[in-house]
Design a protein that fits this description.
The radius of gyration is 15 Å and the shape is globular. With 165 residues, the protein is mainly β. The longest helix is centred in the first third of the chain and has 12 residues, at 20-31. The protein is built from two helices and twelve strands. A hairpin with a 2-residue loop joins strand 2 and strand 3 (49-59).
């Protein structure tokens, strides 16, 4: 998992070490006002790589109500375009998670795990401009509420094919 903020003065140096497809996704997030984009799922191409853009209007929720997820065919680049803050949980997939719902062989490319209180789960705080890159071995839990009340967020997800990296 890698994260940062597109408003960082060092953003170009930070993403320079990433594969080209991930650099393109981060640059797109930095250069595009997705806070005003219509919600939905869109096919797009960045520098010759087909990707999926998801523009999602969500509310954060208590951690215990959210399921950990993982993807195998795509790398998730998640971005907070507006609202928040949002907390995101993550931990490394050790192959021992109890599967709640397996949709990996569908176009959604997603597997949900049951919550595991024994998992060594870290968190990051996402404010507007924050991105997080989740690789196939990164279990992640997006849209966790910060504080006592849920808030509205505009979450952007770019699905980058693993084989493009």
């Amino acid at each position: 998992m890698i994260y940062g903020n597109v408003h960082s003065p060092m953003i170009d140096q930070q993403i320079a070490m990433l594969p080209g497809a991930l650099q393109s996704a981060i640059r797109f997030l930095k250069e595009t006002d997705l806070a005003v984009h219509e919600p939905g799922k869109f096919d797009m191409e960045l520098n010759g790589v087909p990707m999926i853009l998801q523009v999602l209007d969500l509310s954060t929720a208590p951690r215990e109500t959210l399921r950990p997820e993982i993807h195998r065919k795509n790398i998730d680049v998640q971005f907070l375009a507006s609202g928040g803050p949002e907390r995101a949980g993550y931990y490394s997939d050790d192959g021992n998670g109890q599967v709640d719902e397996n949709l990996l062989d569908t176009p959604r490319d997603i597997l949900f795990y049951h919550n595991n209180p024994a998992a060594y789960e870290g968190t990051i705080e996402m404010t507007v401009g924050t991105y997080a890159i989740y690789f196939p071995w990164d279990v992640h839990i997006p849209a966790i509420q910060v504080g006592d009340s849920p808030v509205t967020i505009r979450k952007i997800v770019i699905k980058v094919p693993v084989d493009a990296c």
